[in-house]
């Protein structure tokens, strides 16, 4: 099972009002284990970030000026994401921005390239109703070290979210059976013909029957004659 933990940083909050992606960070999980095969891009959005957004990510226009545009990395990113399940915190936000960038290039929506999207924010709200479920709050609650997160960064946040997701779904590990291993087990077990097996029947002795009846009589007496076997007899 291949999963990609994905996060973006943007110039602002509204993809439909001209805001653009300025950073994409991806972390690969294969069978719930980090592979080290990450993907990370800084992008030139062709516009300034809103002041409030700049306070969050700290990526200035000057820093991004010589970075590629989204169109230059789209194929590499989509090849990397192809067929995977995406794990995203507040998925509607990131997917909305990625779909906007793809639409500007005349490309299909993100759903055409991946097997599905899991929103860890929705998961957290179900697991921890009424509590704060930001990435920082989940790190604190689940014991994930986020001490290096002074500003938001797409790759760092994806790495933190990978730890958070694994902790949130740890109880599912027992349900994740490798199909190939199970098939191998089935192949190693030789079939047994039970059609000729004769099971011996052991009858109770008179002493055992008498002891059994005595126990039933005591139970019947304790229940004032309302035991099921007496009522249905």
Rounded to the nearest angstrom, the radius of gyration is 30 Å
Which CATH top level class of the largest domain fits? Answer: Alpha Beta
- Determine the N-to-C terminus distance: 58 Å
Shape: elongated
As residue ranges, the low-confidence spans are: 174-182
Please state the second-level CATH architecture of the largest domain: 2-Layer Sandwich
H/E element sequence = EEEEHHHEHEHHHHHH
Q: What kind of sheet is the major sheet?
A: 6 strands, mixed
* Discrete helix count: 10
Number of domains: 2
Q: How would you characterize the overall build of this protein?
A:
The chain folds into two domains: 172 residues, Ribonuclease H-like superfamily/Ribonuclease H (Nucleotidyltransferase, domain 5, 2-Layer Sandwich); 29 residues, no CATH class. It is 42% helix and 14% strand. It is built from ten helices and six strands; from the N terminus they run E-E-E-E-H-H-H-E-H-E-H-H-H-H-H-H.
